[in-house]
Specification:
Blueprint lengths: L10 E4 L15 H5 L2 H7 L3 E4 L27 H13 L3 E6 L9 H8 L11 E2 L20 E4 L4 E4 L14 H17 L3 E4 L2 H4 L15 H13 L4 E4 L9 H4 L11 E3 L1 H13 L3 H9 L8 E5 L6 E2 L5 H11 L6 E2 L3 E2 L3 H4 L4 H13 L3 E5 L57 H5 L5 H13 L3 H4 L1 E4 L8 E8 L2 E8 L5 E3 L12 E5 L12 E3 L4 E8 L4
Parallel strand pairs: 1-2, 1-14, 2-3, 3-7, 7-8, 8-9, 9-10, 10-14
Antiparallel strand pairs: 4-6, 5-6, 11-13, 12-13, 15-16, 16-17, 17-21, 18-20, 19-21
The structure holds alpha-D-glucopyranose (GLC).
Length: 550
């Protein structure tokens, strides 16, 4: 069997600065994470994705780097980072880092030099226009907070392009020197031992920006080139990309159409993310069934990465207005829960009213669908958000470890914390924390541990092929299956609240001693698969048969 580790991975995403603070300065650090690796190993995580770790003025939470070859001193030293890689590897955990090369911070020495003079060797590392571009007010990613994509720089006496905030000038990827530098950055971190990169903003990286053309052409060859480079440097390195584009545009990000994926290995499934939210809101799996049917076929080696929550808002922009309104009405009804006119800045537990059955259902669904699951820190204990914080910071509060002051995140004075911990109400650390849940096998954390372990015993879920089981179902119920050399798994999810009975006798011929391996409660034996009970918000993972190959 091909050893594509990423197809069977469980990815855990965290920001070092809000995870665990080892030195009491109020900011999380590498040593803090090292101290928590056993927690992640126990949870069953096989790969950690670190949000940006580079020096940065942190105007966009590190997505604005000033040095790609170093780590933010607040987090520790490069030595600490290397130690983290070693300690993670001792526990069988890989580490990937964010590669944010669409832009730099405007305080990056390259940009400071570039704007200082037309003769700077770095001038052409960025994108300039002598005249005010006609599309200056188009293509903003953060509407409401960002008003233009071209800003006039008085020192440079020219306009520079920035797809994101104006303190994030876009690098000019058309410049061969920039390309070489990006490759060098990947080489550096691969050499240190990372297993790959979460590539930020890929559709924008490859844009051949032309002033006045809001629809600039894209240079996909760069992705082919980068993939080659990365793969030669480290054979099992992976590229996991953020490319939130229309589904028909996705295949070219995976490969050039020659059959095997020769560009990005894994793409976040943004389309599925919005549809999962819609299906949960409407208690109707129809849109997931459509997604399973319609998603473009992936080239060999291509893989989806699924998620319910990440570090950004839930982006509902690819749903229709009606669909979006249904999700907002259910999960983000108040103005202050919404962001950029398209999204929700909340964590999942509060969106689902802290209903344990509903939370389990949602995560069971995500983890059992095709692709590699990505889990955001704190979701495994059901953390909430702090809507008093600005924008996306609402969902970036410190990890809640214990009953101790500052949720056990840090020993600093509370006012020194990078962000306040949630210490009030239902989601306050006094109620929601790791220590409490670790002692209680019935806790959400205990459930996540069991669920992830079960998933890892069913590798066909990630690396096999997934399809909808198209037989009549009670309303609200989704039946899907995963097939691979390791066997077949069947999954039932009831998105509605009514108890139902499901008939899957059509599968009886294929079954070899079918058994429930994970479910929301103890159900009667699966029997002949013709009278499968399923409670409201219930789910059943049934191993239909074991394959002969591992
Ligand atoms: C991506 C990141 C987001 C960041 C932006 C600019 O969308 O996910 O957090 O603000 O890129 O780098």
């Amino acid at each position: 069997m091909s050893d594509r580790w990423y197809s069977e991975a469980v990815v855990y995403c965290l920001d070092i600065d809000t995870f665990a603070d080892s030195d009491g300065d109020g900011v999380g650090d590498f040593q803090g994470l090292i101290g928590r690796l056993d927690y992640l190993a126990r949870l069953g995580v096989t790969c950690i994705w670190l949000n940006p770790i580079h020096p940065s003025p942190n105007e966009d939470d590190g997505y604005d780097a000033t040095d790609f070859y170093n780590v933010d001193p607040r987090l520790g030293t490069l030595g600490d980072f290397a130690e983290l890689l070693h300690q993670a590897s001792n526990r069988g955990i890989r580490v990937i880092i964010d590669l944010v090369v669409n832009h730099t911070s405007n305080k990056h020495p390259w940009f400071i030099s570039a704007r200082s003079s037309p003769d700077s060797p770095y001038r052409d590392w960025y994108i300039w226009s002598e005249h005010e571009p006609a599309d200056r007010h188009q293509g903003m990613v953060f509407p409401g907070e960002q008003h233009e994509t071209w800003t006039y720089d008085r020192t440079a006496k020219a306009w520079y392009y920035h797809r994101f905030y104006k303190f994030q000038p876009d690098l000019n990827i058309e410049n061969p020197k920039v390309r070489a530098e990006v490759k060098k950055i990947t080489s550096f971190w691969l050499q240190l031992g990372v297993s790959g990169f979460r590539m930020d903003a890929v559709p924008f990286i490859i844009e051949r920006t032309e002033p006045g053309n809001p629809d600039s052409p894209k240079d996909f060859d760069f992705l082919t080139d980068l993939r080659q480079h990365v793969q030669w440097r480290r054979g099992d390195a992976v590229l996991l990309a953020e490319a939130n584009v229309e589904p028909d545009q996705l295949p070219v990000f995976f490969g050039d159409g020659s059959g095997s994926g020769n560009r990005i290995h894994m793409l976040f499934d943004f389309m599925l993310n919005g549809r999962l939210m819609l299906a949960l809101a409407r208690e109707d799996p129809e849109v997931i069934i459509e997604a399973l049917r319609d998603t473009p076929k992936l080239p060999t080696g291509g893989q989806w990465a699924t998620f319910l929550r990440n570090h950004d808002e839930i982006d509902l922009s690819r749903l229709t207005a009606d669909q979006r309104n249904d999700v907002l009405a259910k999960f983000g009804p108040k103005k202050n829960m919404q962001l950029y006119g398209r999204g929700i800045r909340r964590r999942l537990a509060p969106m689902l009213g802290n209903d344990r059955r509903h939370i389990e259902l949602a995560y069971s669904l995500q983890f059992s669908l095709r692709g590699t699951p990505v889990l955001r820190y704190g979701e495994e204990i059901g953390m909430g958000e702090d809507l008093a914080l600005e924008g996306r910071d609402a969902i970036r509060t410190p990890m809640q470890w214990s009953y101790q002051e500052n949720a056990g995140f840090s020993t600093a004075e509370p006012e020194k914390l990078i962000r306040p911990v949630i210490d009030k109400g239902e989601y306050g650390y006094q109620h929601v924390n790791v220590t409490a849940q670790r002692r209680d096998p019935r806790s959400l954390l205990g459930w996540f541990e069991r669920m992830i372990r079960t998933l890892r015993e069913a590798p066909e879920t990630g690396s096999g092929s997934t399809s909808h089981i198209d037989v009549p179902m009670p309303p609200g119920v989704l039946a899907h299956r995963a097939d691979g050399p390791t066997g077949t798994m069947v999954f039932l999810h009831n998105l509605g609240t009514e108890d139902v009975e499901v008939d899957l006798s059509i599968l009886a011929d294929e079954a070899e001693l079918p058994i429930d391996v994970l479910s929301d409660r103890n159900y009667p034996d699966v029997g002949k698969l013709d009278r499968l009970k399923l409670a409201g918000y219930g789910y059943r993972w049934i191993r239909l048969r074991l394959g002969h190959e591992r």
